[in-house]
Amino acid sequence: MVADTVSAVAPARPQIRIQGVVKSYAGRVVVNIDDTVLGASPIEGLIGPNGAGKTTLMRLIMHSTALDRGTISLLPPTGGEVVLSSQSSNRMAHHGVVKSNQVIMDFDRLTVLDSLLLAAAEGTYEQPHRIFSEKTVYRRHKDEIRHYLDFFGFADPTAFALSAGEKKLLDIVRCLLLKPTFLLLDEPTAGLPEDLTDKVMVVVRELAAAGTSVVIVEHDLNVIWNLCDEVLFMAEGSVILRGDPQSIRSHRTVVEKYLGEGHV
Amino acid sequence: MTFDFLDSFLITGLFSVVMVTGLALLLHLQLGLTRIANFGVVGFWGIGMYVFGVLYVKVDWSFGDPYQFLVCAAIATIASGLAGLLVGWLIADLDTDGVLVVTLGFATAVQLVATAQDDITGGARGMGGLDFPFDIGKVKDNELLWLGFTMAVVAGILFYVWRVHRSPYGRHLIAVGANERLARSLGKSTSRTKLWLFVIASAAMGLLGAMNGVMVRFLDIGNLGIDITLAAMAGLILGGTARVWGAVVGVFLTVGVFDIVIQSYLPLPREWYTQAIPVMREAIFGLTLIIVLLFRPYGILGDMRRDSLMRKIHGR
Ligand SMILES: Nc1ncnc2c1ncn2[C@@H]1O[C@H](COP(=O)(O)OP(=O)(O)OP(=O)(O)O)[C@@H](O)[C@H]1O
Ligand SMILES: [Mg+2]
Predict the structure, then answer these.
(1) Using one digit for the tens of pLDDT, what is the confidence trace for A98-150?
(2) Do the Cβ atoms of B179 and A105 come within 8 Å?
(3) How far apart are the first and last CA of chain B?
(4) Least packed by Cβ within 10 Å: which of A133, A221, B63, B78?
């Protein structure tokens, strides 16, 4: 009976609650969110004009940027609450909260395989005295790594990622190997060819179906309208509208501020 | 007589090559993989040497060698490791400039303390009374055997470093050096990594310091200057900061060529040895450093090649 009440209250998938969060740069408020919950729908799209604060919001969630004010917490489906904004950025992945980067981020000296093994490797195997654990880590993760390498068609994993597209894709695969329960994607398909964009979307759908909450920022609105269950419209640091793709697409404010007349 | 004089020089020369190689290998983990420029090598090494020396000479141990050596060296190693913990904690969130200031400042502090606490350390007068933990006859034989022990320790360090390159730990260090932010977003606790790296490398530097104390059998604060750090840096950078064998090749070409070939085999006037040669040595090492950094920043062996390494370990 008690258990029933708890499971009825607890969300079915992880959610992130953003309360009273303010972030400004040089006196200019860039993010200002009163109270918003992300992750109620499997896949949520976050859209808005350039400089609206989408990337900054995601960075605040990951705590890779410090908040001026406010709290961000994770509400796991099992109940309870984890205050993310009081923990250091390296803890986020342990809570299943993972973000891909809009701007290309890579380890310049590591090969594709290195990068993926790094993402997959558990901390215990990376301790200074575990100098014989490479084979173990490889054995534990080679199948999932191989799966993604084949799926996305990486030619030679022992080489370095060279093109911008390859690095972008590598960034996403690293995120996938972290087995996220809450995945933030910041323009994942920018710079990717169409076939790869489609493949990323396939993976995102699979993840969401398996219980991961996905929030995706995209300027390619076809992706948003096709993929998302809910769309949040952000402008000047705040989420000013949210709703299903159809209603957002035809909303006056969105059309005026972002899409431009004649888009619909 | 002349032959004896040269021979003893050769042993000391070889010893410094081996010891500096050890230091450069440890520095390679910090500078080459994790891109933390530790300019305080001499501080950790010096703490090891002095803690060892003072304990060995001043404390009235109820047991003799080799246990006296082992206990003193173990405490010295731990002391340097703790210094590494402190410095590692201080630099964990600093950028390159901050690391430079803290590590240099740390090394200077070690020298100042050793000088000021002269009732314990002998200060500027120095302190004798150290000895080999064994006696197999002539001094030269003892020195040769000690050289052998030191070689074994440095070979151990070399093996460790070689394994680190082939382990998840090494990959983690390289990732922290290449893009700390990204590493953190993958759940890697980069501050803790740096902390432990400093503890381990500093402890091993301290052990080498203690072993140096045994070899020279005299504590001299003149050794706590920049020489040792400079020698390890110049050697490592000449050979290649990012390569396992960089330290070995580079130190052989710097300290080896200078301390063995030039000092032992060139007919230099004897009065040069106390004044001119140490100055010349520092000038040449400094110059080497500058030239390499300008024209070949990854040294003779070049940057690491993770692609061929991965191919070798895991196949294509
Ligand atoms: N580190 C920073 N220092 C100063 N200003 C910043 C910083 N990061 C972001 N900004 C500013 O904050 C505002 C919001 O930037 P943000 O990157 O979050 O926007 P965005 O919605 O992701 O835009 P885009 O669609 O172009 O990616 C911008 O005006 C930007 O110039
Ligand atoms: Mg952005």
Answers:
(1) 999 999 999 999 999 999 999 999 999 999 999 999 999 999 999 999 999 99
(2) yes
(3) 61
(4) B63
